[in-house]
Amino acid sequence: MPQDAFTLRLSARELNDALRGGKINKINQPLPEEISFLIYTGTRTVKLVLNVNASDCGVYFYEAEQENPLVAPNFCMLLRKHLQNAEILEISTVGFERIVALRLKCVSDFSVAERILYAEIMGKYSNLILTENGVILGALKTTSLDDNCKRTIFGGVKYVLPAPQDKINPADLTALSALFAQPREGLARFLFLNVAGLAPCTAEQIVASYRGGDFAKHVHDYIFSDETSPCVLEQGGTPTDFYARSVQGGLPFSSLSRAQLYFYSHRRAKKSKDALAQKLSSAINAAKKKQEKRLLQISEKKRDCADAEENRIKGELLTANLYALRKGMRECELYNYYSETGETLKISLDETLSPAQNAQNYFKRYRKQKRTLESLLPQEEEANAELDYLESLSAAVGYAADETDLKSVEEECFAAKLLRQPTTNRKKKQEIPFRLFEKDGFRIEAGRNNLQNDRLVKSAQPYDIWLHAQKFRSCHVLVRTERKAVPNEVLLFAAEICAAFSNGKGGKFPVDYCEAKYVKKPPRARAGTVTYSNQKTILVDITTKEK
Fold first, then answer.
1. Which residues of the chain have pLDDT under 70?
2. Are 323 and 291 contacting, i.e. CB atoms less than 8 angstroms apart?
3. pLDDT for the residue 183
4. Which of these, 402, 405, 406, 385, lies nearest to 281 by C-alpha position?
5. Residue 372, CB-side half-sphere exposure with 13 Å CA sphere
6. DSSP secondary structure letter of residue 143
7. Where would a tag sit more exposed on the chain, N or C end, judged by fewer CB atoms within 10 A?
8. Which 3 state secondary structure label does DSSP give 85?
9. CA–CA distance, 131 with 150 (Å, rounded to integer)
10. Is the C-alpha dihedral spanning 195, 201, 205, 208 positive or negative?
């Protein structure tokens, strides 16, 4: 995204028109490198975000709700102290720098002051700095005297602009004319490397719009023109960039603010979804590794008990041949009457024990191994059931269509104690609803996670149609029939929903369906586990599924 001086100047002009005279009602810091202002403009309340993260830096409107920390960070508290209820006098850029200045009138019970909040939009060097009379009151990112840096940023020192780049200011038409006096190859790159405040894509747009004449004047007029035709470029339905001027294939917007809002909303939603998916996958995978380790330990114990039956036989053979044995023998070889081939069995003995005591030792070892095997069986079943449940959670993360789906899986992870439930003072969140669909007058519901699948089955009427993937993990789907016959088209549509929210890939996708009265939940079974009967199967082509 071209957050260069060219774009920021146009963006600041729009923000100034929209927010001048507005009052800052709330100040929050939802992210470590982001401040949000709730501003009442006189007609409506808008949220302005000042982000100085390298990947999302900018000053733009934002609409989505954000969770704020229970304890506000220090810089947020500083802004609340100095800027609460401040009036916005002007929003502008500083010269032709990538710096947006918010000039604010701050009135308190004891004073009236004018303060300036500088948003320096410079990639990884971005920062927010609050000043009064040219002196820094505080900054989001500060330096110290020990840092040996060229620019000092902390409270009490004079605010100075970043050192200028060794480039020409595009406002200087004479310097521009001298720069382009000779023909140049690779003009767009040359423009980017030698003229301040331009991103590579802006330089390419300037060159592409040139139609002959004085190129230096064209560059100057293009940069300082107030003309805008904002657009957003998309790839596969995902916004990839926004522009202040129209580009080929761009989705047009009425204002640069709306284009940025659309771009950042989608970008942030994707980042938030990916981060939540990664968090859930990590927690689920950690639990899966724990169960796999547990199964490995069970398997090792079972191997240690593999000779249990042999120990019983040895004990019985020793008991049957006590008359032929004596104390002090280290081993003996006895006829094994359990063997079909009639072979002998060599048995090790403890020479300090009598033959009867050696026999009892083998019986004792056998009983211990038998008890161990009996106790391992339910443990193995429990571990396999837990692993199967975790696989269902992992599949739910994989086929989640949006962040709402992932939030429902997160709630299930909280309930399963895979994640620690955050302690907040906020009101209880509303229950996430089922996925809802409609086809030919039939209401179709689908669960987002195992807990919702249980609720769906519990809420079903006996005559409703229940669907689930036959050989894959998928959501549970319910067709609310209201005692009406369900057409094949509706069944196929419901089966396609199973395919869309499943971990199946490619080819024909078998989906079982039956009346809900044939679906039962076994006692003490994990969430999402059911048994069913009297089912039929419908095939859908999974290659056409869309999530």
1. 1-2, 145-148, 423-430, 506, 543-547
2. no
3. 73
4. 406
5. 18
6. -
7. C
8. coil
9. 19
10. positive
Give 485-491's long-range contacts (Cβ < 8 A, gap of 24+): 486/442, 487/440, 489/439, 489/440, 490/439, 490/440, 490/442, 490/444, 491/465, 491/467, 491/538
Q: How far is CA 166 from CA 32, 169, 183, 196, in A?
A: 32, 9, 21, 8
Structure tokens at 68: 């704020």
The first and second tokens of residue 268, run together, are: 């942030």
The pLDDT of residue 2 is 66
Cα–Cα–Cα angle for 6, 162, 201, rounded to 5 degrees: 25
Question: At 438, is the secondary structure helix, strand, or coil?
Answer: strand
Between helix 403-415 and helix 256-304 the angle, nearest 10°, is 40
Q: Cα–Cα distance between 149 and 337 in angstroms, integer?
A: 90
Taking Cα atoms as reference points, which of 65, 70, 68 lies closest to residue 404? Answer: 65
Q: Which two three-digit tokens encode residue 122?
A: 């410079």
Question: How does DSSP classify residue 543?
Answer: G
Q: Which amino acid is at 347?
A: I
CA nearest to 119, candidates 162, 167, 64, 69: 162
> Strand locations in 42-125, DSSP E?
45-51, 58-61, 87-93, 99-107, 112-120
The answer to whether the beta carbons of residues 437 and 493 sit under 8 Å apart is: yes
With beta carbons less than 8 A apart as the criterion, state whether 295 and 94 touch: no
Amino acid present at 233: L
